[in-house]
């Protein structure tokens, strides 16, 4: 039996590459003669460009930059010198994972550190930026990144605003360029299709996850609409809200005002770059997984997109996940993980043991 082991991250517990290694070990314990090709996957969410950097063998360049609230943090990006392309995730330095629950505050959080990484890539010669949008801490509409690249945000009296200050977004009265912007194009990888504005937009849907209080939604919306109007006036081409602009707090919306910016479904991009279809063609069975497969998974998440590719190729797929929703979308077998107590001090150890036991149960049919 030849397996393709291609799990997504098990959010909050195991990285995709950790899950893949565990699954591979358990398969080979049970059937040492089997062949296992591991290809941990991502879909534009947290860690997508990290995995691409690893799997494509890119140069990994570190840099000390600002975190989502301005504290110093060590980040990195992957760099392909041949194509002058840098690969980085917003979550690497501007991710919500760096904040405790009481620190989450989209009125203060900024993507400036991600912009610093991009500027570092520019000094290395980068002309193209592949940006994974998942896991951001902010709803700053890309203002932090833009500021790092040379866009200034001023108050109504023309004074430059200070990043990481309360209410930064609502104080913006003017936008001006500080010299010539770098010549860059962006490819933004996303795993959601939400627009920035509207009932399913970034503020009502993702705002609460980032610490936006219910009573602040309208005020934040008004600040966002005002900034959008300023960006439209500054933009040299027509700028409209569109699908995927709601990802990562509107980063692609802001970038699109000044740079050629393409929105790409992250899972498909990842599959293409890692030659997943070619690797799947030689497999007898595919096994994937994620922390919880639910209704959102069918909106572009890695496990669901992998299933669509496998269906096209006539390959059977197993899913490892908590919940039973996967049983209704076409997986050959769903291996259900037990629920976890996310407040448990041994959460990761418990997640590893649960994954091992679930795989064993699936392989033995017990």
Give me the secondary-structure topology:
Layout: E1 2-5, H1 16-30, E2 35-38, H2 48-55, E3 59-66, E4 72-80, E5 85-89, H3 91-94, H4 112-123, E6 128-132, H5 143-149, E7 151-154, H6 168-171, E8 174-177, E9 185-190, H7 202-206, H8 217-234, H9 251-256, E10 261-265, H10 266-273, H11 276-281, E11 285-292, H12 302-313, E12 317-322, E13 333-336, H13 347-364
Parallel strand pairs: 1-2, 1-11, 5-6, 6-9, 9-10, 11-12, 12-13
Antiparallel strand pairs: 3-4, 4-5, 7-8
Helix pairs in contact: 1-13, 4-5
Explained architecture:
With 366 residues, the protein is α/β, with parallel strands linked by helices. The protein folds into 2 domains: 2-39 and 275-364, 3-Layer(aba) Sandwich (Rossmann fold); 48-267, Glycerate kinase, domain 2. The protein contains 13 helices and 13 strands. It has helices at 16-30, 48-55, 91-94, 112-123, 143-149, 168-171, 202-206, 217-234, 251-256, 266-273, 276-281, 302-313, 347-364; strands at 2-5, 35-38, 59-66, 72-80, 85-89, 128-132, 151-154, 174-177, 185-190, 261-265, 285-292, 317-322, 333-336. The strands form 3 sheets. The chain has a 6-stranded mixed beta sheet, sandwiched between helices. It has a 5-stranded parallel beta sheet with strand order 2-1-11-12-13. Helix 1 (16-30) packs parallel to helix 13 and helix 4 packs parallel to helix 5. The longest helix has 18 residues, at 217-234. The protein is globular, with a radius of gyration of 21 Å.
List keywords for this structure.
Rossmann fold; six-stranded mixed beta sheet; alpha/beta; five-stranded parallel beta sheet; Glycerate kinase, domain 2; 366 residues
